[in-house]
Amino acid sequence: MIGSVLLRPALAVLALMLALGTVQAEVRIKDIAHFEGIRENQLIGYGLVVGLNGSGDTLKNSPFTRKSMEGMLGRLGVGNLTDEQIKTRNTAAVMVTGNLPGFSRSGSTIDIVVSSLGDATSLKGGTLLVTPLSGADGNIYAVAQGPVAVSGFSVRGQAASVTEGVPTVARIENGAIVEREIEFSLNAMSSVRLALRNPDFTTASRMADAINETGDGLARMLDPGTVEVSARGKVDIPQLLAAIENLTLLPDSRAKVVIDAKTGTIVMGSNVRIDEVAISQGGLTVMVRESAEVSQPMPLSIGGTVVVPSTDIALRPRDSGFSVLEGQVSLQELVDGLNAIGINTQDTIAILQALKAAGALHADLEII
């Protein structure tokens, strides 16, 4: 049996995850599922940001900005302008996006994101002009306008420049007013469906049981990702949803190992198990030592004293030998076993991949 040793940084994350997940806590239904039909709707629009201090679009390189300016000025009574008369760099064409929450009423406000479409260098100090926002069906649901707030900045000189963040993307808090409501009568429904964010038969069954225990609704599992709930008696759907969303249950999850090879991050679920295997991990430690030697000519000879570099390279084999991990070990025993071999993060990733290839790792291995 392998004894535990001091946790290395590569595996310290695994031990921390184990410590946090030793006692599984129940979670609310509203945190692992959402009600079908109650969701946000994406909105998009095209507009102009004005008032920029010379950091807007170059009209020569952004013809759509010029056309938009000509159309806007024409609607305001300023027309018949030639290309030579429009040379401003204080305007930028932008795309405006936002999400319309469910049950939003006319007159309520939503946040929007403004993103440059042309070659503007910064939107700082600009103001978004009236921009209609439409949904996927082509209808206009909100109208946006207001001063933009940029978190990044860009400073340029003749020989250098500094850019912090993304100055061509900005936000406007409560920058759009809802003009059209999405028709949805929740109170007229006799049943509602709950969609699990992570479909699982066990979790869906436990959710249906938790709802049936309250007596307010009749729940049944349709599939691993859907639970249908019908109201009982005089209980209406809004009251039923308010009671359901705060019910707690213990969700189940599959055994899974997630590896991020770019950052060396490894996350293992508590249900990960392996068969009895023997692991040997070895490699080479390369040591390079640089030194300098002085080469001096013999007396009365031609030449001068020179310094000659000298490099010594030594290869030291590193082999931990075989370590045996007993079958059906827990996550803690697996972490201790990998620790005892004395390996780094990349070696741990290689061992987990080899265990999966050998059929000894009983878990889904996902590399991102």
Automatic annotation (TrEMBL):
HAMAP family, alphabetized: FlgI
Domain of life from the UniProt record: Bacteria
Self-association state and partner proteins as the record states: The basal body constitutes a major portion of the flagellar organelle and consists of four rings (L,P,S, and M) mounted on a central rod.
Main location: other
PANTHER family: FLAGELLAR P-RING PERIPLASMIC PROTEIN FLGI, FLAGELLAR P-RING PROTEIN
Family: Belongs to the FlgI family.
Localization per record: Bacterial flagellum basal body
Keyword annotations: Bacterial flagellum, Cell projection, Cilium, Flagellum, Periplasm, Signal
Presence of the UniProt keyword Acetylation in the record: no
Signal peptide: 1-25
InterPro entries, per database record: Flag_FlgI
Function: Assembles around the rod to form the L-ring and probably protects the motor/basal body from shearing forces during rotation.
Matches recorded under Pfam families: FlgI
Coiled-coil features, chain-numbered ranges: none
Protein name in UniProt: Flagellar P-ring protein
Source organism per UniProt: Pseudogemmobacter faecipullorum
